[in-house]
Each structure stands twice: as C-alpha cells, then as structure tokens.
RNA sequence: GGCCCCGUAGCUCAGGGGAUAGAGCGGCCGCCUCCUAAGCGGCAGGUCGAUGGUUCGAAUCCAUCCGGGGUCACCA
C-alpha cells in the first residue's frame, strides 16, 4: 500500500474527469504531476503541483485549475480538505481513516509493506568489492561491500531481479607480485631470510601462505628460477587470498551470487571476441594518442597503439587495449567481462568502484554502450574513501570490534560520493549520538511495549493487532507517527530509482526520532502511553501503532543488512 | 592543464526545479512519584562558495570562475 501513489492516481483521474467535462483541455500530459509530502506539515498531508505544471499547456491560470481540482477532490471520501495555496499548490488533508487504515496495512503486509513493483523484474547485475586477491580486505573495500550489498537488497525489495557479482582481478601483474612475495615467505618458512624487495607485498598475512607452500613443496622450490614456480604459486596464493576475502565478506554478512575470474577469460577467446565485435563496429584502430592536455609526462613519446574509439561513445580520449608486446592491457579483459554481462542478458548494469577509479567511468560506459548498442545502461557508483579514526586496523578487527551491524549502518550514513569518518569511539557509544544505537533503541522500546502488553493479557500477534479498533488512534501525535510510516513505500522507490541506499538509513533515523518523540509525550500525557491499564481495546490500538513502526524499522534495517535488536544490553 | 566528485548553521552532514532551506553535535534554557531520561522539548545560529543565465519559480538545471580532494598514454 503506497498512499502517495494512491492519491496521485486520484489526482490524475480527477484531472482526466475534468478534461472530460470540458473544464480542462483534453489530452494533457500528467507525467510531471507529483504528489509529495509538503515541506511544512502545517500545509497539510500531501501537496500536488498539478495546477502549476499544467497551467502553461492548458493555457489557464494555475489557481483556476487548482480550484477546479480542489472542488472535485473534496468530494472523495479519502480527502478531508483541499486548499489552494501559494502560487498554485493544492494542499490536501486526508481523513483520519486513511492513516488508521495505513497502520492496519502495515500489520497485514508485514515486512512486505513498502515493496515495490517498480523494477518490474528487470535483471540487474551489481558488481562490487572486486578487490584484488592480493591480500585481505581493508576498510575502503568494506564501504564498497556494504554499499553494494545494501543496494542489491534495496533493488530486490523494489522489484528488480538482482545478481550480486565479484570480479576477481587475478589476471594481471599484481598477482605475479603476490606470487613473488609469497615465495619469499616460503623461503622464510624454510628457515631462510626473506628478501621483501621494494614493490613486493610486505604484509604478515602472507606468512601462512609461505607455511602452506612449505607443507606442499618442502624444499623442492628453493633456489629454483621463478619460471619454475611462478604460475603455480600464483594460483595457490591468490586462491588463498580469495578465501581470506570470502571470510571477510562473510563476517560482514555480504553474500555474492557470482564470482567471475579475470584469468578465466584468457585463452577462451572471449577477449578476442569482444575486441573483434568492437572492431566490426569500426571502433578499434591503430593510432597515436595526443599527450594529456596541459601536463605532458617527462617520458612521453608518440607511440602507435591499438586503440578503442571510446570517444564515439562519450569518452574524452580513445583508450589503448593492447600493449606493444602484443598482450592485452587491463582494459581489454574488463571490456570482455562487461560484454559477458551484456550477453548474459542483464537489462541494467551497476558497478561500484573506489573513487580512485573515477578515471575509468567514461571508458567503461563507452564500452558497454558500444557492445550493447546503447541498450544496457551502466551506472557506476564511486565510493569515496573512509577515514578511520584509530588507524590502520585491518578489516576483521574493525568488524570484530564494532560488529557487522554497526559497521554496516555507519557505512551507510553518508552518500557514496562523500568521504566518511569512521570513528571507533563514536560507533561503539551507547547514546543518541550514535545513529545505529538510536534506531536500535527505538526498536527495543517497541519490543518492550509488546512484552508489557502481552503481560497485560493482550493478543499481540500482527493478525490480532490488525483487527484492533484503530479509530482510537486520533491524537495528532499518533497520526504523525502513521504519516511517517506512510512515507516508507515512497522512500523505497526514490532510493531505488537513484541507486541510493543511504536514504534508507536517514529515513530510519527520522522514523526512530518520531517514535522517541511519541514515546516521550507519554511522560506528560498518560493517554499517549501505549499500554493503557485496564483498557484492552485502547491498548491494542496503540500497541498496533508501535508494532507497525517496529515492522517498518525491521524492514528498513533488513535492507541495510542490519539485524534489529529486541533489547539493549 | 583535461576529466570526475565535493563546497549548505561554529562542526559533521541531509535535501538535488517548488511555498518562511533541515537534522545531529557543540552553546543556552527546560522535562524523571510516570511503560527504559541509553530519551524528549525549546531558544540562538545561514548572502546554500562567487557571478551571470534558463523560467511563473533555482540550494537544486546551464555557463564561467574560486576553494578542497581524486585521477590523467603499453599499472591493474
């Protein structure tokens, strides 16, 4: 049940009826007509811009349209009042029954309340994390993981068919470096002094890899040339690192549907096929790039390269796909991988990159645009860096200390393209300064209400509460609470439309705030307490409101991947 | 220098064509014989970086500029 959608339909139906009566010209486009919560609650429950939007095409004064529309809407039983205001806004007040009915709808629909059919089952692929398999995840990856996971849950809730995917960059030079680093740890495991040269990975996390190599090869690879062991150690080490990363993701509560390997693309002809496809479109050529404008690198020299004409699809310069030694650049398998996603039949692609990869956005979009003939949109979300206060902690420690739920919520309290401060002290604090706690506390209070209510002998199943006499919910503060709940389905659609899961976190904070406010009013006005001594009918209605709030909090936290707590400890 | 992101209250940030621009923190003033005060209410605080433009209307869209960050041809 989406009240805003319902009333919007009422408005557009009324406009159509007015056109049929000749009050408005026929054939007006209603696409720009919006029904929204007004900025100022004093303006009513919902406002529509219909009159202002239609004034010009209808050739009428906005207020004239608004008045005609108001008169018509006022006849509908759902509408308690319609007033023209300002330059032509039409402010609507809904009858109390609507809000009471909404509470019932939440209890009836449960965690499905707010689900949307907006995605219409379209297949979307969300690629995220995709950290190189050269070490454990760090805090920066965590944010990408959380954003991608929450976005996936959000899109699924809004009606998309979602595939979560991890692209393993195991085909380039960085895994050779990994292998050489692991080899040194292997020597170390055999009692030799490791030589961690400049450019190798120095991290302790490779020590167990060295041990494993010793267990497997004994001393047989010592003093052997790298040509003997490189490929094998590379595979072993990167597999072990992927295990590490899968463990990190699991600790965070992030699940992937598909792991795709870059290395697996080599030798299958897929890269060649993708490039040939582009060649067939006349988008591959041999050429020389201009030096970067303004700043020419010291060692720049004109060089003939195999280039992708990405400028034909919106990029600023064309991009090399092949090195002079005839091997592919990193970009070529990336193209093939995205081509693969297109061929698998996805209707939409989403990539979540670290902000340091911002320079690849245009070329990646150009490739997808070309390879799908403009059919498949690719949205790339850049996730800004995380500033960790308390420094240098590897991921497991962060999650172990703060908890996956807290970590996840905090990572979503910022838009993806803004840097995020992750302060341990704050995050673990049990106070209203900590948004995670604040939202969880509201849920805990709701559970407390349900407990008390059950002790008072009231049936608190959702089915029973939905049957309560909700007309009892008439106090303005209670109606306000219901109005906030009514925004949930609308928020889901807005967040899904923009691929912006952080909106859910902000909404939950507002919802919790509304609830804490209502709770506290019970201190001064005992008639606003949820459990009313000796009055089962009144209690049931009020508890129903609390429970409905709890349902929406749970649904919202579910999208963030955060477990709602029953009580604070 | 090119491209991308950011610039909104003292601080951290929402809002991204609509009516007097919001929240939290910090500051000041209030609220516990009462379901969890781990909370709630109120006050003070703004030329929405600047300047032009688009239109009935701009924090929001466009252009130019100013700050801050990222990135920039055979590294992924």
What is the architecture of one domain at the second tier of CATH?
Orthogonal Bundle
For the record, give the distance between the C-alpha atoms at the N and C termini, rounded to a whole number: 35 Å
| CATH 4th-level superfamily of one domain | Isoleucyl-tRNA Synthetase, Domain 1
Secondary structure class reads alpha/beta
User: What is the CATH topology assignment of one domain?
Assistant: Isoleucyl-tRNA Synthetase, Domain 1
The first-level CATH class name of one domain:
Mainly Alpha
Number of helices: 19
Helix fraction by DSSP (H/I, runs of at least 4) = 40-55%
Mean pLDDT metric: 93
- Radius of gyration equals 29 Å
Strand order of the largest sheet: 7-6-5-11-12
Quantity of strands, as a count:
14
In quaternary terms, these chains amount to single chain
Q: Specify the overall morphology.
A: flat
Low-pLDDT stretches are none
Largest β sheet strand count, sense and barrel closure: 5 strands, parallel
* Beta-strand residue percentage: 5-15%
